[in-house]
Amino acid sequence: MSKRSWSVANAAQGLLDMNSGSRSATNATSMSPPQIHLQQDSPNGPQISRKVKACAACRKQKIKCLMDNNGEPPCRRCIERGLSCVLNKSLQTLISERSQWKDDMHRDISNMHGAVQDILKRLSMPALQPLKAPSAAEDPQETSPYDDTVVEKVEDVGPSCDNSPKLPPQTESLQNVPIESLYQITRLRSLRAENSGDESKADEGSDVVSKGIVSLEDAQRLTTLYLQRLDHYAYSIANKFKDLQSIRRRSVALTNAILTVAALHDPNSNQLFGPCCREFKRVLAESMFVRRIDREDLRAMCIGSYWLSDMSYTLSGHAIRRAMAINLSSNYYRVLNDGSEDAADCLRLWYMLYICDQHLSILYGRPTTIRIDDPSLQGWERYLEVRVAVEQDRRTASQVALMVIMGTIREFFDRHSRDTQTLPQNLTEHINSFDRQIDRWVETWYQHLKRRDDIGDWPSKGVLLHSNLARLHLHSHIFRGLSTAPIPPYFRPSASSAVSAANTIVEVLLSDPDMRSGLVGMPHYLHTMIAFACGFLLQMTTKYDGDLVQRQHVHDLINRLVAQLRQMPTGKFHLVRFMAEGLEKMVEASMRTPTQPAAQLFNGGFQYMNEQHYRDPAAVAQMDMMGGGAGGTGAGQHNDYGGGNDGFMIPDFGLSNSFLPFEDPVFRTSDFGYL
């Protein structure tokens, strides 16, 4: 049996003396520290009652073992005698060291597992299964009591501050904006916007492919559909990407956005649209409070706002605010000064955001977020002169130029009239001036936009479609506040122009193959404006039948469009499906509604208009330019198409027509099947 150490022996002797009363309370108190120390050695693990401090040779001779190297062998005696100095460890020490080794291994494996997970996430590959063994940092029962390296991680819920030294007052100039002064005082990072959105941030989470929601084969098919067809209708906003893999490497949000939009248009991907859309919303929701915005996230929000009608208003507003935070519009000057490709890409995003902003302003009748007098918008002509400008930039600039005109129209009428007030006569010249601006816009761009193999003559023919939509938007304002009152003589030309524009819009969609094909691919703004044109014509039949419109002609025209919409190869959640069903119900309601004689609605002297009104020379000339021959389309022609539609509740098309003088219940917008 080995000899006990002097400290333990003395402690035991002290306890015996206390029990026998031979020692004083002072001596007993002096023995208490070793006892307390022994009790606190290991509260969660096995207590080490004795610690081996003598080597095997000294223990065998039962002599004191003196070790100079912090209690580590060899001891003095073994050094002097040249003996092998071995320090045998007790069982408790072995258990303690093994527990420490196990904790270290747990932490090392957890670190490697986390590193591999991060690599897989960056490569957009499936994640590993969670570790089955709990790590030492996660399981307090497995943590060694001797491990001083484990530090509890506490979440910092307070605002973060910059630790950079504050500049002395004499070196600081007067701040241009008040928030900068507050930042200088508090150094709160949240008060400062990011300087740039050029660099990509690490994607958090996985896209729909990594999660197994969409198979790789389906994802590649949908990406091809988007890049080779749909993207051209959005001015090639994503043409920098060539395949699915390049998109997945850059952004989860962009991947989900492209797959969602493609699934919406693909008739064979109805089951994928819902899951993709939910994931797209989830990723965007998680990025709402992330300070740094990535350029590809802005691109994803542009794509969503352009095609997804149920979230377009929210996405556009959020994207514009984030773009303003990083001063995205300043890339206009970078392009002019440096001709940078990178700056040109940022400027294209800014123009796209402006287009979406104006589209939604027109559809909802709400103010825009981006000011029309922004230098980058007024100076689009200078941008086209730089070397980095390509054909897609011409198409983008054409739309920017038109949106500037339409934005000016909206602001003008907002200042000079209300929905319940009739327009004064002195606005006639302003309306004619706006109409001439639209004419000049058509003359400028119709011949300059070239044919494309992927979308045909859509760029140039789209100019004519947009011009008619703009005219309808402009001239329909004269119906504000009229209710059942007759149209004033000085607004008669505008009323006729509005009806002619609406009629031309529908006829070119029926007669021109490029326009028909574009129904699957065009943004939801155009679908909404087409629905507005149809609703406008149908509403005209209840008040102005036999004068401005021919009731039977309008019904035949809309019925043919309904058949055409049902024929379009697209997903069941696409707007054209709901438009077909809603327009059909509106035509049926219009047929059941009695009309008022046109003579009761006008001051005397107006001549009734006949079918020749629909052969308006301007409308016929435009359709001849498009090569469709729609000018000779008879009112009695009708094509029978099959088709079906699944009910699905979607948000408002923006067809309130609040400025039109019609209150008939037969034209409830609920006929379109939306909330």
TrEMBL record:
Residues 17-47 are annotated as: Disordered. Keywords: DNA-binding, Metal-binding, Nucleus, Transcription, Transcription regulation. Residues 19-47 have a biased composition (Polar residues). Residues 54-87 form the Zn(2)-C6 fungal-type domain. GO terms for biological process: DNA-templated transcription. GO terms for cellular component: nucleus. It is found in: Nucleus. This is Zn(2)-C6 fungal-type domain-containing protein. GO terms for molecular function: DNA-binding transcription factor activity, RNA polymerase II-specific; transcription cis-regulatory region binding; zinc ion binding. Gene3D superfamilies: Zn(2)-C6 fungal-type DNA-binding domain (4.10.240.10).
